[in-house]
Design goal:
Blueprint: H1 2-8, H2 12-24, E1 47-56, E2 66-69, E3 73-74, E4 85-89, E5 95-99, H3 104-117, E6 121-122, H4 125-129, E7 137-149, E8 162-172, E9 183-194, H5 200-212, E10 219-226
Parallel strand pairs: 2-6, 2-7, 3-7
Antiparallel strand pairs: 1-9, 1-10, 4-5, 7-8, 8-9
Helix pairs in contact: 3-5
Length: 229
Amino acid sequence: MWRLFLFMNLPVSIVSIFLTSLLMGCLGPKNGAVDREVLSVNLPRWSFLASASGQMEAGRERLPKVVYVFPALRLNDLGQPMDRMRHREDTAGGLLWSSTAPAGHEIKMILEKKLRQKGFAPGTFSALTQAPDGHTILVVNPFYKEAGPSSYNSESAANASWINLIRIEAATFPLDLDPNKKREIFVLEAVSLFNDQNLDEQVIKRAAAYLLDHIGRSGTWSERVNLLN
């Protein structure tokens, strides 16, 4: 409880610095831009081609079962978050975080639902700040890049080839939540190729759930994914 009290009574600027470190800790040098070459294929409208990659902490065999999922943030062309995080207090005095990204909250809900199906227990931010031991809660940060025309769509035609990106990072933190002492657990990313700009948000959401089916997988792979599943 004392950690939550201290956190909530920090100046807003300090809280912002902490959240920036917490949310961006795993981004590293990756630019997150949607500029990766993918194969040109004749895709049905209700499917997309996911060019995916994963990286798991070396030697990691088990994951914490309690997770906290932040709302998603959009990435700009430099791979930096372009949205803001906001918070309000719940009835118990805990913090509820929201994102200015249009799909930020919905992606959080989709990830939490998928994690429940996989045996995890999504918790609150208060559970994270009041955890009795360090590195016992998995903190999940989703990021996405909205659709841009692929190299096969030079005229940016709405019904032609588009690509977007979803990136999911997971880490654990010590008892004092020092972001400099976090453990990076896994990173999953998908660059998706699809044939209708209007499907951008649906592809992002479906790709987010798809990636969580590959927790623990390392390497790169490509797969056609049905949007309607």
